[in-house]
Design brief:
single chain, mainly alpha, Rna Polymerase Sigma Factor, Chain: A
Length: 189
């Protein structure tokens, strides 16, 4: 019961970007993942990368608000890291069909696949944004990333008023959408 409460509080802390929670998860579980990776054709650098990706998957699940952990936290992290490592080995054509280590895993394929799909979509968005050109790229970054209001954008970009800047932003979004879908191939990411 106490362990379950501790793990729930760690997940809540992770969802809120609490440094202590993140450090506790690292301290409690990193060495297990490092051992699994090193014992299965990997390096310490590989272990750091895989653990970081597993933490991102866990973070995204914790932030969703609907995630219920039905196993120990270490089992979930191990399962995600194991799945990620098997995929990496397959990509590097160094696959070992069975990863040695903890035998208890949970099905996390959907979590890992959703994470990888989101990363691939972000790459397509980034590629589309970089090929969008100026001033559209800067205008969209000013509005969506820098959170500037339309009056500030109109002034910075030389538009006569906020409505003209808003109209230009809309045109830029249409162009970005076309570029995205020209690069986006569902199922091929």
């Amino acid at each position: 019961m106490k362990v379950e409460q501790d793990e729930k509080s760690l997940l809540n802390g992770l969802a809120k970007n609490d440094r202590d929670a993140v450090e506790a998860i690292y301290a409690g579980h990193y060495s297990m993942i490092q051992s699994m990776i090193i014992n299965n054709n990997g390096s310490a650098d590989d272990a750091r990368d895989i653990f970081q990706e597993a933490m991102i998957v866990l973070y995204e699940k914790a932030r969703s608000g609907s995630f219920e952990l039905h196993c120990q936290l270490k089992t979930y992290i191990y399962s995600v890291a194991r799945r990620l490592w098997l995929k990496r080995l397959k990509q590097m054509q160094r696959i070992n069909t069975e990863v040695n280590g903890l035998e208890e895993t949970v099905p996390v394929e959907e979590d890992v696949d959703a994470h990888e799909l989101r990363n691939q979509e972000f790459q397509v968005i980034e590629k589309s944004l970089s090929s969008l050109g100026e001033p559209c790229k800067s205008l969209l970054e000013a509005f969506y990333l820098q959170k500037k209001n339309m009056n500030d954008i109109a002034e910075a970009f030389g538009y006569t008023n906020a409505d003209n800047a808003k109209n230009q932003k809309y045109k830029c979004l249409i162009r970005l959408r076309k570029l995205f879908f020209a690069n986006y191939k569902p199922g091929k990411l």
